[in-house]
Structures are given as structure tokens and as C-alpha cells.
Amino acid sequence: MSRRSLRQDKIAKVYDAEILPVWTGRFARLLLRNVHVPPKAMVLEVGCGTGHVALELARKMDQQSRVIALESSSPLLDVAREKAGDLSGRRIFFRTEHLTGKLSFAEGVYDVACSNLGLEDLEVPRQEALAELVRVTKPGGQVLVTMPMEGSWGEFLDIYREVLIKHDLDEILGHLEDYALRFPSPQEAIATAQAVGLRDVSLDVDEFRLLFRSAREFFFAPVIEYGPLRTWKRLAGKGQVMQDIFWYIKEAIDAYFGGTSFSVTVLAACLHGTKPLEDDDGVGIDISGDDVSGFDVIEELSGLHEVDEASVVEEVDLGENYDDDEGDEEITDTMETAEEERITSPNRKKLSKNHGFLSRGVVATVQDDLGALVTENLRDGASIDSRDDEIDDDAPTMQPQMSPIGRRSDGDD
């Protein structure tokens, strides 16, 4: 079992209040409206977090169905088990598992295999991780994964790119461009699903925006601080150069968006398809490996869901200055920050290799790699406003010091 870190405990403490409503929950809605759970189903969720999707699936299932929910973070699983109550160990089986390689299940065990953003945190390529979900799914079963698509975080990445170009940081710029390529286009996502053997592949997409009143609010909102910020910082390296880059990004955001909101676009997608009963040549699929039924898995896990009742998530002061277990460098001194994440104008799109489109509000078309026109449906209507706190205007800001990009002449723009 992995050592609990202060960072993991902090994430678990704020996850359901600060991250789930504006981020994970948005992707989960896509997954839940596309999943089809048959009677007496065995369902696998990889990367269950605090159990939101697993609990919603349990509400959709009959009494004979079961969910096996995997998560690498013990603090998040503590929250999930507490939320599940009596369902934990009866209809939902939570299991700590390092999600870095092959899943510890035989082939063809599950009627549904899904992951809500879980594949994004794995070290293996997305196609390899998706292939593992397909492997453990029964022929005829459904596979669903959610992911951010090409164009997500675009406003921030444009400013990041501008700073790197201005200061001739070509190597870091290359890292940034490689990072941007991690977000697939619709055609790439569908092609990946087809490459691992899925059929009837579709891509359901929602576009939404996160609004921030300042750069400081952006960087210290939990959805950013405990989400992509660590990766963004690693792209810039370590030490003063990284500090300076993010100071210039902060200054650019406040200069461009001062007096208004910094709006960041996210394209949330659910990729889903069916594992075929027969391969392309019409030959039945050979389910190799151990003969393990779904309810044999339940027997195996039935003793693993129990936890020490005295184990609780540590109370952590989020204003405390700290270094997490990997020595991640802070952009500046940790401070009390306000947060306003409003999600507006969600745009829904449906992309499919084989069929149709959604009605209502058709505004654009794209052409997939097979040359077929696919209709995009936009404007799904709702908005969500979260809390509106005070900003501490006296909080410290980042200042560049003596790195090569920090030494600028007064005549520089």
C-alpha cells in the first residue's frame, strides 16, 4: 500500500466541494447519460475518485448488479467508502490499485468497463490503457472513457506559448507543444477506439467555460492547483526560470483580462463503444486466461473493502505553506485565495462513425477522417454559479529575480 501524502489528503478534503462540481462532475454527466447497464451486470470503474460515478451507477443498476471501483489514492477511497455507506462491500466494492499498467483481472469479466478521467493520469499511452479496458470487458459489453479534448485550456496555453516565444525558450516551447498534442481531436479519439477493437464508436462532447477573476484566483483554484498546474510547471523545469515564466504568465493574464473574467474553455468528451461478439473475420473471440466469472471477482474482493473505522481524512489548513511529497515547487507563498468558477454556455456535440446526429441548435459541421459529414449540436443551456468569496488583495505575488528571463531592460515590452 502506498504512503499517504499530504497532497493527497488535501485533495480528498476539498474534492467534493471544490473540484467535483466544476470539473469531474461535468465529465461524469457525459458518461452517465451514455452508459447502458444490463441486468445482473458486473461493472468496472477505473479511477473512481470519491465514488461519484460508482454511486450513480449503483442507482441505475438492479439489485443483482455490482460495481468494482478502483482508485490509487487511499484518501479519496476513504471519502468514497464513507459516502457509499452500507453499499460499500455489498453492491460497490472499492479497491486500492496502482493504475500504471495491466489490470489485475482476467479477460472478458465485465459487462461495462468505464473510467471518468482516470486514463488521463496514467503513465501509459491512452490507447494502451483503453485496450486494457477492452480486454477485461465481455464480448458485447460497453466501454466508456471521458477525457478533455483538443482545444481544452486553449486560452491559458496561448498565453504560456506567447511568454516562451517572447523569451526565446525554444526547448520549453517544444515541451508545451508536445503537451498540447495529448488532447486528441474527435477523429483521433474515434480512431483510437477503433484501433483497440471497439465497434459502434461514438463521441459525446460538452463545451463549457471556467471563469476566474484574476490570475491569482486561476492558479490557486483547487481545480487548477490540484489538477493540471503541476504538469504545467514541470514543462517549465524547476527553479527560478520556472518561477519567472509563471510570473510573466500571471502578469499577462491580468493585463489582458484586467477588469473582466479570464475565461478558459474546456471540451469534455465521453468516448464509448462496444466490444464485438465476433472479430472482423467473423471468427468468435477467444477469451484466454483464467476462467474467472464476475461473481468470483466479488468473492475475491469481499474482504478488501473493510477499513479501520478510526481512519479519517486528515484535517488540513489550506492556508498552510507546505512542500508535498514530491518536492513540488510553489509558484509563490501559499495564501488564502478566493474562488469563483462559473460554468456557462455548455455546448453539446455528438460524433459517431456510424450514425446520426442530435437535433436542436445545429450550428456547424465537421468532416471526419472517413469523409462523412457529422453534425455538431450546440447550446444545451444550463449554467452553474459557485461561491463568491473575498479576495485578499494584500496577499504576496510572484516576482522574477535573476534568471535569464528575469533580467530584462526597461525598454522591453
* Order of helix and strand elements from N to C terminus: HEHEHEEHEHHHEHHHHEHEEE
Q: Indicate the CATH class of the domain at 1-148 and 184-205 and 269-316.
A: Alpha Beta
Unreliable parts: 280-295, 302-404, 406-413
* Biggest pleated-sheet summary: 8 strands, mixed
Distance between the termini: 52 Å
CATH H-tier superfamily of the domain at 1-148 and 184-205 and 269-316: Vaccinia Virus protein VP39
Kindly estimate the percentage of residues that lie in beta strands according to DSSP. Answer: 15-25%
Number of helices: 12
Oligomer: single chain
Please bin the fraction of helical residues.
25-40%
Query: Largest sheet, order of strands side by side?
Result: 3-2-1-4-5-7-6-8
Average pLDDT, rounded to a whole number, is 76
